[in-house]
Write a structure and sequence with these properties.
A hairpin with a 3-residue loop joins strand 16 and strand 17 (282-286). This protein is of the alpha/beta class and 420 residues long. The protein has helices at residues 22-31, 48-59, 85-90, 98-105, 124-132, 163-174, 189-201, 235-247, 263-271, 310-317, 338-343, 373-385, 396-399, 405-411; strands at residues 3-7, 13-17, 38-42, 63-67, 70-74, 82-83, 107-111, 136-140, 143-147, 155-157, 179-183, 205-206, 213-216, 226-230, 251-255, 275-278, 282-286, 297-298, 323-327, 347-351, 354-358, 367-369, 389-393, 415-419. The protein has a 4-stranded mixed sheet with strand order 22-23-1-24. The protein has a 4-stranded mixed sheet with strand order 2-15-17-16, covered by helices on one side. A 4-stranded mixed sheet has the order 4-5-3-14. 31% of the residues lie in helices and 25% in strands. It binds uridine-diphosphate-N-acetylglucosamine.
């Protein structure tokens, strides 16, 4: 069992370069199935979710290799259209492969992704979108059996702006006949990154970043293009380091980011009284003078405050001056890390979707366990602000989304080590 041991009390200082976005890489890896060509993805983080996506591609018969931060995919050899249960469970967002396999092979068999640590994570919108493009989908013994003799473009009205359903629809639409218009689409920056990749494949797509996305499907089956794509920086990792810098009352340069993509996050830290200096692709946060509780923070689809940034922010607010009100509107069970934070002396009350975080003078180190990816990151942030040593177990959750977390923390002067 691996643990992350952090002894708090050191102010973070120095600079951190933010790695590529997990939530961009995964749909783009799935979309690489659309053509029979090669895809080279740069700025790809080393994460267990990326490893799982590579395993899925290999299981489908493709070549998928990673060297440093570059992934090479050759999907000309795809032979299989089924993802077994074990691989589906390894990566919760593996349903993102549905649209790509269906568009490429006309058939897809996936096991139903069960519930997850954030509460039930339905895929009804993904299924409805594929059906409206002409797919027939049945459920047998926990498997989704999907077939389509030829997907066709259509209008997809999403009842809520699901990130995954928007991406699955875009990917399937790229490989089908005719024009698809997706309304109430998610507007996250990762959707824009997927649009850029699809355009590099030659697919006319427009509207990413707005609520209406139009995709002109093209016949990619004979496309043997070689596409190179660079992944955008990870907004949530940036939010985590902003939280860590604040929690430790430090001063950190966060480099390689797209500041406009994190403006809702930057606004909260400004509201907390942290001093922010924002450049073209960097931000410096200075929290050496302490910070106060921000105005209530409500998680919303982009451009609102991201649900994934809420747990690390909560951890930073544990030692804020005053009480922070957080309202989680995207996922149930997004407060599973709260009992762990309480073991460290946090004063948090939960009432349904609302968390009230009262700042305390002292947090103390404790033995805690990561409950999910961002909840695990929150424990690391809190540990930086605590007196004494915290040991975090269940690192498999954190490894899904943070590449080299310990090395980055150490480079920022934190007393952190990983014990495998
Ligand atoms: C993506 C991100 C995840 C982030 C989330 C919200 C990836 C790999 N993951 O997840 O990190 O937390 O966006 O920003 O990009 N819903 C339905 N039916 C569906 C699909 C979703 O009801 O078919 C609901 C979900 O239960 C949730 C809400 O829609 O309440 C948003 O989910 P969605 O945007 O789909 O999140 P993911 O794409 O799974």
């Amino acid at each position: 069992m691996s643990i992350l041991r952090i002894t708090g009390g050191k102010r973070l200082s120095g600079e951190i370069h933010i790695h590529g976005a997990k939530n961009s890489v995964l749909p783009i890896m799935a979309a690489s199935l659309l053509s029979s060509g090669e895809t080279i993805i740069h700025n790809c983080p080393s994460l267990s979710d990326v490893d799982a996506a590579m395993k899925i591609l290999r299981h489908l018969g493709c070549v998928a290799e990673k060297k440093d931060d570059t992934v090479y995919i050759n999907s000309s050899t795809m032979t299989n259209c089924q993802i077994p249960d074990g691989l589906m469970r390894e990566m919760r967002s593996s349903v993102i492969f549905l649209g790509a396999i269906l568009a490429r092979a006309g058939r897809a068999v996936l096991s139903m992704p069960g519930g997850c640590e954030l509460g039930p994570r339905p895929i009804d919108l993904h299924i409805a979108a594929m059906r409206s493009m002409g797919a027939e989908i049945e459920e047998h013994g926990g498997n989704l059996i999907c077939s389509a003799s030829g997907l066709r473009g259509c209008r997809i009205d999403l009842t809520l702006p699901s990130v995954g359903a928007t991406e699955n629809s875009m990917i399937a639409a790229a490989g089908c006949q005719g024009t698809t218009v997706i309304t109430n689409a998610a507007r996250e920056p990762e959707i824009r990154d997927l649009q850029d990749y699809l355009r590099e494949l030659g697919v006319p797509v427009s509207g990413a970043g707005t609520s209406i996305i139009t995709v002109e499907g093209i016949d990619l089956s004979k496309s043997v293009k070689r596409v190179e794509h660079r992944i955008i920086p990870d907004r949530i990792v940036a939010a985590t380091f902003l939280s860590a810098a604040a929690a430790s009352m430090g001063k950190v340069d966060i480099l390689g980011i797209i500041p406009e993509d994190i403006s809702s996050i930057l606004n909260v830290f400004t509201d907390m009284g942290c001093s922010l200096n924002v450049g073209k692709d960097w931000v410096t946060i200075d929290a050496q003078g302490g910070f106060r509780a921000p105005k209530p923070v409500v998680t919303r689809p982009y451009p609102g405050f991201p649900t994934d940034a809420q747990p690390p922010l909560m951890a930073a607010c544990l030692k804020a001056d005053g009480t922070t009100v957080l309202v989680e509107t995207i996922f149930e069970n997004r407060y599973r890390h709260v009992p762990e934070l309480r073991r460290m002396g946090a004063d948090i009350r939960i009432d349904g979707r609302v968390a009230m975080v009262s700042g305390v003078n002292k947090l103390h180190g404790a033995l805690v366990a990561a409950t999910d990816l961002r909840g695990g990151a929150a424990l690391a942030v809190a540990a930086l602000a605590a007196d004494g040593t915290t040991e975090i177990s269940e690192l498999k959750h954190i490894d899904r989304g943070y590449d080299g977390l310990v090395e980055s923390l150490r480079a920022l002067n934190a007393d952190a080590e990983r014990i495998d």
